[in-house]
Amino acid sequence: MKVLALSSSPRKDGNSRMLAQAVLDGAVSRGHDVEIADLVDVVSAPLRDCRTCRRADGTCSIEDGYETLLRQVLAADAIVLATPLYWYGIAGQLKIFIDRLFCYTKADYPHSAEVKRRIARKRLAVVLTSEESYLGSALGVMAQVQEMARYLHHEFVGVVRGVANSRGEVTRDPANPMGQAFNLGVRLFDEVVTDYQLDSERDGVVWPEFPRATANQA
Ligand SMILES: Cc1cc2nc3c(=O)[nH]c(=O)nc-3n(C[C@H](O)[C@H](O)[C@H](O)COP(=O)(O)O)c2cc1C
Question: Which of 18, 71, 131, 212 sits in a 20 to 30 Å window from 196, CA-based?
Answer without folding.
Answer: 212
